[in-house]
Design goal:
Layout: E1 8-13, H1 18-29, E2 34-41, H2 46-55, E3 63-65, H3 68-78, E4 83-84, H4 88-95, E5 100-103, H5 111-120, E6 123-126, H6 129-135, H7 137-142, E7 148-150, H8 153-161, E8 170-177, H9 187-190, H10 195-198, H11 208-216, H12 218-231, E9 238-242, E10 248-254, E11 259-263, H13 269-277, H14 309-319, H15 323-339, H16 345-357, H17 369-386
Helix pairs in contact: 2-3, 4-5, 6-12, 6-15, 12-14, 15-16, 15-17, 16-17
Bound molecules: NADPH dihydro-nicotinamide-adenine-dinucleotide phosphate, 1-deoxy-D-xylulose-5-phosphate and manganese (II) ion (MN).
EC number: 1.1.1.267
Function: Catalyzes the NADPH-dependent rearrangement and reduction of 1-deoxy-D-xylulose-5-phosphate (DXP) to 2-C-methyl-D-erythritol 4-phosphate (MEP).
InterPro entries: DXP_reductoisomerase, DXP_reductoisomerase_C, DXP_reductoisomerase_N, DXPR_C, DXPR_C_sf, NAD(P)-bd_dom_sf
């Protein structure tokens, strides 16, 4: 960016979450480069949202809150009604012209906003991987080339590695996984895992849902689907390796045998800043690796017997249609049941498998968003019944 350019206008959906708050820190550190034009959230933390809106100098017309009661609270504090209700995020996209919209809400409820962002012509800085996994080809069809820029650390890493060669020169994508808090555990050991144990990620501080997904390796399963969709690489050319240090964020192996890796200490500020400024890098976004002291980076295979989620996702993704939406929705419902103490930790992924085994009707490509929503709703119902 040159000094005579105006700042990039950024709208943040999910501003009160882990990604949203880090994005606001990136923006606050670069006021000449970025400007916040709107904020949206669920309504679980009205004090924070009000403080964020005031700090950004936003009026109520640039704020959206899904929960209507929370929206009343936020509106009262900001002096007028804010956008509210289940469509508040898409309404916000329509109300706030932006250059970049960061979709950092959690879950497949991010799908309609992702489509609205793409239709608005803004760049979609995509943290909400569930919207891509659920919407699949519908999301890709709504996007212009290069309009979706990944925020997810692995996919941001792959996008950076791909600068080293052409698409035709790519042999394999290699996603790294931390392995989660139960790496090395047996099937017997994971039976008694509690939500509290599953909420302690070894290397990243993140929201509760993605932290649980990392523990089951469902997060990596969703990321394999995400990588297939974003980079148009077949499932049998996408590998996962367990890298407990979370410093190498993913790799690309090219046809001549070269593997290009992207490394940095675990911080989401780097991929967030890069997605907001894409294709430019933001100086000082994150610390760099320190090679003046000894360190070890290790890689090991995934234990697919104890953690079968990735193999399930490959099978669902390879069969296609809305089965990836079914996978994600079954997981969201099973995760709710686990958090509520109704099922054990291994039953989360077993529930996904059970739901997928009954989901043949959803194997055809969806023609409309409504078909995806129907698959999503069906899978939640089946998962709740099974759980
Ligand atoms: N955290 C991380 O490091 C990473 C996250 N991601 C992905 O980014 C997304 C966000 O994750 P994370 O920040 O950890 O999640 P958090 O749980 O920390 O934050 C979720 C955000 O979504 C908002 N939200 C919840 N329900 C709604 C709703 N109905 N409408 C609008 N907004 C809603 C929450 O608002 P409220 O506070 O009001 O409830 C909150 O702002 C997920 O898809 C995750 O997989 C990807 C890579 C890394
Ligand atoms: C930071 C990020 O992108 C997360 O998706 C992270 O990768 C989760 O860690 P796991 O590798 O344990 O799933
Ligand atoms: Mn990730």
């Amino acid at each position: 960016m040159t000094s005579d350019e105006s700042p990039t206008r950024v709208l943040i959906l999910g501003s009160t979450g882990s990604i949203g708050t880090q994005a606001l820190e990136v923006i606050a550190a670069n006021p000449d480069r970025f400007e916040v034009v709107g904020l949206g959230a669920g309504g679980g933390n009205t004090d924070l949202l009000i403080a964020q809106a005031r700090a950004a100098g936003l009026g109520p017309d640039a704020v959206g809150v899904a929960n209507p009661d929370a929206a009343d609270t936020v509106g009262a504090a900001l002096g007028a009604t804010v956008l509210s209700g289940p469509d508040a995020m898409t309404d916000l996209v329509h109300a706030c012209p932006a250059d970049v919209v960061l979709n950092a809400v959690v879950g497949s409820l991010g799908l309609a906003p992702s489509i609205a962002i793409l239709r608005s012509g803004a760049r979609l800085a995509l943290a909400n991987k569930e919207s891509l996994v659920a919407g699949g080809s519908l999301v890709l069809d709504a996007a212009a080339p290069g309009q979706i820029v990944p925020v997810d650390s692995e996919h941001s890493a792959i996008a950076q590695c791909l600068r080293a060669g052409s698409a035709a020169e790519v042999d394999r994508l290699v996603l790294t996984a931390s392995g989660g808090p139960f790496r090395g555990w047996t099937r017997e050991q994971i039976v008694d895992v509690t939500p509290e144990q599953a909420g302690k990620h070894p290397t990243w501080s993140m929201g509760p849902m993605i932290t649980l997904n990392s523990a089951t390796l469902v997060n990596k399963a969703l990321e394999v689907i995400e990588a297939h969709l974003l980079f148009d690489v077949d499932y049998d050319h996408i590998d996962v390796t367990v890298h407990p240090q979370s410093i190498v964020h993913s790799m690309v192996t090219f046809v001549d045998g070269a593997t290009v890796a992207k490394a940095s200490p675990p911080s989401m500020k780097l991929p967030i800043a890069l997605a907001l400024a894409w294709p430019e890098r933001v100086p000082g976004a994150s610390l760099a690796c320190d090679f003046s002291t000894a360190s070890a980076w290790t890689f090991e295979p995934v234990d697919n017997d104890v953690f079968p989620a990735i193999e399930l996702a490959r099978a669902a993704g390879t069969r296609g249609g809305s089965l990836t939406a079914v996978f994600n929705a079954a997981n969201e419902a099973a995760a709710d049941a686990f958090f509520a103490g109704r099922i054990t930790f291994p039953r989360i992924v077993e529930t996904i498998a059970d739901v997928l085994s009954q989901a043949d009707q959803w194997a055809t490509p969806p023609g409309t968003l409504e078909e995806v929503f129907a698959a999503d709703a069906w899978a939640r119902r089946r998962a709740a019944e099974i759980a």
